[in-house]
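Running this now, will post back.
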Amino acid sequence: MADRRDPGREKDSDTGSDEDAGAVLFRENGGSWWVVSIGPLLIAAVVAVEATGPGQIHWPVLSIFFVVLTGFALIQVYAARQHVSVCLTETTLRQGVKTIPLTDIEKIHPENNAPDPKDWESASALGELSGVPRRRTGIGLTLTSGKLTQAWARDHRRLRQELTEALLAVQMGLGPRSDSKPNPTPNLDDSDETS
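Update: finished.
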């Protein structure tokens, strides 16, 4: 079944709706919900200071600041978790809301340790963002269509390692590990024996 956001895209594997994606090999959520608690903690500190002081507590102003700080933090964390998250399974790579099958990746370029930039470093990023998000590092990819692009993650070395291993497994024709179930042992009940 196709997702409404991207007509050609299969459902996300991390929602449990795509059983063929295999196990999750790498995940970055993009944003942490603890950031939402900063606003309420600051407001609580101001209330404590005002309560111990000689004046009154300014409830209307503090309520407005509480709503504004918490609201902006909620929006920011939700957007980060939606658009800057990464999930690599045994058969797919999701960057933000865009998921591509690993069969669409032809080559993973080596990390550039030279001072001069490589062609893939100026390529567009996977996902719907215009470039590699802040505090993330790009990983050069060549797709089977010939297009240069960049996967990205905070822990780019681990993503590169997991992506390389998963791509090699896909290119070798190995299915997801979760598909490889042990052969059932034959049923040896007493009714089959002849005495």
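Strands lie at 24-28, 86-89, 92-95, 98-101, 105-108, 137-143, 148-153. More later if anyone needs it.
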